[in-house]
Amino acid sequence: LIDTEQDVLDRCADSLDALTVKGSCIDVETLEEADISHCDIFISTTKNDETNMLGCLIAKKKGAQYTIARIRDPVSFDITPEMLAFWNADMNFITEELNIDYVANPERATAREISRMLRLPFASGIETFVRGLVELIEIRVNGDEPFCDIPLKNVYVKSRNMPRVLFCGVERDGVPQIPKGDFILRAGDLIGVTGEPAEVNRAFRKLGLPFNPMKKVILVGGSTRIPAVQE
Q1: pLDDT of 8-53, one tens digit each?
Q2: What residues contact 70, with CB distance under 8 A and at least 6 apart?
Q3: Where are the alpha helices (DSSP H) in 62-145?
């Protein structure tokens, strides 16, 4: 763990089994003290995008195998689709040139999570894989679903032209199970369904799950700006 504040490092040293180094992630001597040449993953999440990008560049040059940088979208009140497309293209160029393996964007990740929750209001949880190309949806069975109390292999028999999704896991009474074709879902089961997002949507609609549109949403916060404190 690298940080410029000693009190932060002291708290981390007290609670984590990790080496702490005081300094900057763009200082070569600091990185060498942290043994950067034998680092498998270097993650830079400072408040400054440029520092994170430069830190990843230096770390890669000094031997780090994999780098992750937190890079935020440009803050603008009137961002247009053209500006967003330009930023995405520019960011792809930057990450390729700086050899950054993965970019973490807190605002975009939050927006995507909210979008998923609004799209599938009945889901208990949504996880994504392959950068959003595959989704794992968790659903708590209440007993009214058309796939309840029948073998899973019969789901496709009852619903013609059913999109191909995978019922990949079931948690029943706290015990995880991998269902087969003869597995019968019961009320109270927590099931996991995976597939491409569009196919998952079509499958749930085909199964008759409630896609009730959200009519009232309250958002609190969302700005990265810290308001000035008036004395």
Answers
A1: 999 988 898 888 999 999 999 999 999 999 999 999 999 888 899 9
A2: 44, 45, 46, 49, 52, 103, 104, 105, 106
A3: 81-98, 106-119
